[in-house]
Amino acid sequence: MKTTYSLLIVLGLVIQLCACKDDFLEMPLSSTTVADSVFSTSTKAQGAIANAYRNILSQGLPHRNTWNAMIQENLSGGMNYSHSWTIAKDIVLSGLNASRTNEDMDGYEGNFAPIRQAYLVKENIDKVRDMSAADKAIVKAEMQALIAYRYGQMFIIYGGVPIVSRSYLPTDELAIPRSPLKAVLDSIVTWCDQAAAVLPSQWPDTWKGRMTKSAALAIKSKALLYAARPLFNAAAPYLDLGANNNLISLGNYDQNRWTLAAQAADAVIEEAEARGGASIINTGNPLDDYGTATSKPGNPEVLLAFKFVNTYSGGGDNWSELPMNAFYNPRYWQAQGNVLTTNQLENYYKADGTNQIWPATGAVLPFSDYTAKMNQMEARFKADFQPWEMDAPNNPGHVNWRNNSTGTGPGFGVARITKFYYKAGARYWFEFPIFRLAAAYLSAAEAYNEAGEPGKALERLNKIHQRAGLPAVTETNPAALRAIIQREWAVEFFDENYRLHDVKHWKLPNIGNGIIGGAIRGFAFNNNTTVKLTGNTNYTDKVIYQAFWAPNQYLNPFPQNEINKGILVQNPNY
């Protein structure tokens, strides 16, 4: 199958063929001979660059034989974990602990090998003889932005973490303690500003997928938004850590953090739209527009994506070696049968912008009521889900997406999950959207509302809300508008690895009552037996399980083996 050309696709295939002997990520720390060989020509160096992208940007994605659960959506109450063997199950039922910390799929320790690789590229790129000084400067900026991305993710998940400023040798002092939250934030902002000053606004078509000014600014914007949210932007931390409170709190509430977040989000929008060739897709067809924005490789709304195409060649433990149907069949991408929960369903609007009336828990309604209500839902719902006894709305008429093409799933649940496959047809791979321009608009909307500028908040919110075919929001009460914006995040970015940490950093008062913790509900069918492809008679909403929540889960624990070294301070109550 033909694919979009990009650094990560074209060179990723080269990496797979030659990595067995010279995998740059596994290069010995002191091996200058290997480094000289890798960076002897620009062609060889591009392989190391591509591998750095792949390993940095895969954070949070199922790329290492841990593909059997989209953990974050399971933990945030959006998907049912379905089968007992999924990674999310124990965390959902009993919470995180220091020996089970793979919520982000890589785990804490999985961050530093990719970071080291990016530093090695940055530190060795000057050895390349047939690359211009200007191109070398851009590569260094790319690596710096990639490092900032990983640190931004750790900042959100763990709080303050050790700051690594270069690749280290075995003879170096490696006992690096956690840095204060503000120091990590300041480093991310500085790295992004430095990278954005050098990176191009756009790349030629043959290099699409590489870091741009817009993408670097998006990394900065995300970090500043999370810094402004209540979890970090507070005088006291969520739990007391004594003398180490600066590892998990910024130490005061500062309204200006919201202003900085708003300005950073606007900077992303201005750069992306004025010079980056990006835009919010809005042709007046909401299903097509949202479906394209989330699913079509290389579309103009995506600022940065994980570009790695599945070209199955046999058994293995990475994306390129999973069975073909693992990706064209959405049941497998979403953990072999994961289905939508009622908890997440209730965030979606009807197509006219009003709230749908779903059955009360325990009430039994005819299946015709289910079908009628599903047909009334907004376009984003139809792009993301396939209701029972219906062909998938996101692939009309295609044989792979008919009612009987993907099996019945776990026997309950609101609907199958089909996001990322709008008009995919027989295509089984997709490009996970790490940053979409829509996130900058919602970030700006949230920040302006909290900064006391509802007019600017509504302008940016409605850019996304109305693209979905919904009537403009006019609410100006800050608390009410906050709830609307948070709901917009839940719908617009379902399954894009936002929701879990959004609800934590918002410190939602009901986080333990039907979001991360509490009753997680789904639809059951045919008098609580099983859902069928045809001939369903009734449905009801029921509690599937009681999820676990405790305040220590606001931030993840560090692995116990790291704490046992006596260098890192553990997050509270683990």
Please give a structural write-up.
Helix 1 packs across helix 3 and helix 18 runs parallel beside helix 19. This protein folds into three domains: 181 residues, Serine Threonine Protein Phosphatase 5, Tetratricopeptide repeat (Alpha Horseshoe); 89 residues, no CATH class; 181 residues, no CATH class. It has 21 helices and nine strands. The N terminus is likely disordered. The chain has a three-stranded antiparallel sheet with strand order 4-9-8. Strands 1-3 form a two-stranded antiparallel ribbon. With 574 residues, the protein is mostly helical. Helix content is 40%, strand content 7%.
Rg measurement, Å: 23 Å
Strand segment count: 9
Q: Total helix count?
A: 21
Low-confidence stretches are 1-30, 310-332
Report the structural category.
Answer: mainly alpha
The quaternary organization reads as single chain
CATH T-level topology of the largest domain:
Serine Threonine Protein Phosphatase 5, Tetratricopeptide repeat
Average pLDDT number: 87
Task: Name the helicity range.
Answer: 40-55%
Any idea what the shape is? globular
Q: What is the architecture of the largest domain at the second tier of CATH?
A: Alpha Horseshoe
Q: What's the topology here?
A:
Blueprint: H1 7-22, H2 32-38, H3 42-57, H4 71-75, E1 79-80, H5 88-94, H6 112-124, H7 133-158, H8 181-196, H9 213-228, H10 256-274, H11 286-295, E2 302-306, H12 325-328, H13 330-333, E3 339-340, H14 342-345, E4 364-366, H15 367-375, H16 379-384, E5 385-387, E6 415-417, E7 432-436, H17 437-450, H18 454-465, H19 478-492, H20 499-506, E8 518-525, E9 538-547, H21 560-563
Antiparallel strand pairs: 1-3, 2-7, 4-9, 5-6, 8-9
